[in-house]
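Researcher: Quick test of sequence recovery. Tokens follow.
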């Protein structure tokens, strides 16, 4: 399948129905899911909700979505540019296998998607969010050129430990990025 985007060490491609097992393996690690759901995602949910949702975004927004990330060692996770409902704004994110943590892939892929959003897709703003206590992801956001904007609180029926500290929003607009914030 054709690459959506390539970096020095990563190739991002669209997922297909044949990639179910990769997503199941990724979402079954409780540490990977720690700041997302706090628990592994059931195989049935990946098969019936997660993968179909990924494929639907490709159909509805052909230039956006969740993209399979491959490195020299094979599948390492995914990176995504998601529609936000705000014209000209996309949400950047990633999820990596624990074996891929600490290798710089998160920053490399996120920087590449931000650049792609501005230079190829004509976006005006890129945002990202995470739990305030997710310090590793916050560091990736900063290294990727995103800037802290605010802490906000959401109500959850079954909150994760750390939820009481809120969520954080990071963002960069085209003008700031063009001025060199990404360097």
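Model:
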């Amino acid at each position: 399948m054709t690459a959506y985007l390539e970096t020095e060490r990563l190739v991002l491609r669209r997922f297909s129905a044949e990639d179910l097992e990769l997503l199941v393996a990724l979402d079954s690690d409780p540490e990977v899911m720690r700041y997302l759901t706090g628990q592994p995602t059931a195989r049935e949910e990946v098969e019936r909700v997660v993968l179909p949702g990924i494929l639907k975004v490709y159909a509805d927004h052909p230039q956006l979505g969740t993209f399979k990330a491959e490195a020299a060692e094979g599948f390492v996770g995914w990176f995504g540019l998601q529609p936000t409902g705000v014209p000209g704004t996309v949400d950047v994110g990633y999820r990596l296998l624990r074996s891929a943590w600490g290798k710089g892939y998160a920053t490399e892929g996120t920087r590449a998607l931000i650049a792609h959003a501005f230079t190829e897709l004509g976006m005006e703003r890129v945002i990202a969010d995470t739990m305030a206590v997710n310090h590793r992801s916050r560091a990736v956001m900063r290294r990727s050129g995103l800037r802290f904007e605010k802490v906000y609180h959401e109500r959850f029926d079954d909150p994760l430990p750390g939820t009481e500290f809120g969520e954080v929003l990071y963002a960069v607009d085209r003008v700031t990025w063009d001025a060199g914030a990404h360097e």
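The radius of gyration is 16 Å.
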